[in-house]
Design brief:
This protein is an alpha+beta fold and about 150 residues long. The protein is built from six helices and eight strands, in the order E-H-H-E-E-H-E-E-H-E-E-H-E-H. The strands form four sheets. It has a two-stranded antiparallel sheet. A two-stranded antiparallel ribbon has the order 2-3. A two-stranded antiparallel ribbon has the order 4-5. The longest helix has 9 residues. It starts with a strand and ends with a helix. The protein binds iron/sulfur cluster (SF4) (2 copies). The site of one iron/sulfur cluster (SF4) has 13 residues, from helix 3. The site of one iron/sulfur cluster (SF4) has 14 residues, from helix 1 and strand 3.
Length: about 150
């Protein structure tokens, strides 16, 4: 399956991927309304990598692991792998225990601002295109298979 890969050498740290992730997962799908009126946690987070001389940034999001620890740890059956290999979160089932947050080795799951459910990358499955990839101004994010990503690294 394809997933979003981040290339830190190209990341500007502009945060546009976070902005568009929130927009994609908003009710309005409107960039302004999503930020001013809706309380959405981005599923992609830009981390600054401390370097002695220069600033570097890295976009952190779910790897959709082959053997996902979050699915095994979920006490409510809310985390699951779908038929396409995508690791997803059913917000209706989630009880907000945050076990998945604790076990994810990448820190890819976020507590929602309402404190009830978790927010994680779903590859914009209901949106039709991955807005973070589409709107990254420096092509630091790419939708690739593992083989395609290894060829680029
Ligand atoms: S949009 Fe691209 S360049 Fe900007 S922070 Fe996100 S990954 Fe980095
Ligand atoms: S949330 Fe973490 S453990 Fe679960 S599939 Fe994504 S990267 Fe793997």
């Amino acid at each position: 399956m394809k997933r979003v890969y981040a290339f830190e050498s190209k990341c500007l740290g502009c945060g546009l991927c976070e902005v568009y992730c929130r927009t994609a997962h908003s009710k309005s799908k409107d960039i302004i309304k999503a930020h001013k009126k809706e309380n959405i946690t981005s599923s992609i987070v830009i981390e600054e990598i401390l370097q002695p001389k220069a600033k570097m940034y890295f976009a952190l999001q779910c790897r959709h692991c082959a053997s996902p620890k979050c699915v095994k740890a979920c006490i409510a059956g809310a985390m699951y792998k779908d038929e396409n290999g995508l690791v997803r979160n059913n917000k209706e089932k989630c009880v907000g225990c945050l076990s998945c947050v604790l076990v994810c080795p990448y820190g890819a799951i976020k507590k929602n601002k309402d404190g009830k459910a978790v927010s994680k990358c779903d590859l914009c499955i209901n949106y039709g295109t991955q807005l973070c990839v589409k709107n990254c101004p420096n092509e630091a994010l790419k939708l690739l298979t593992e083989e395609e990503a290894e060829a680029l690294i």
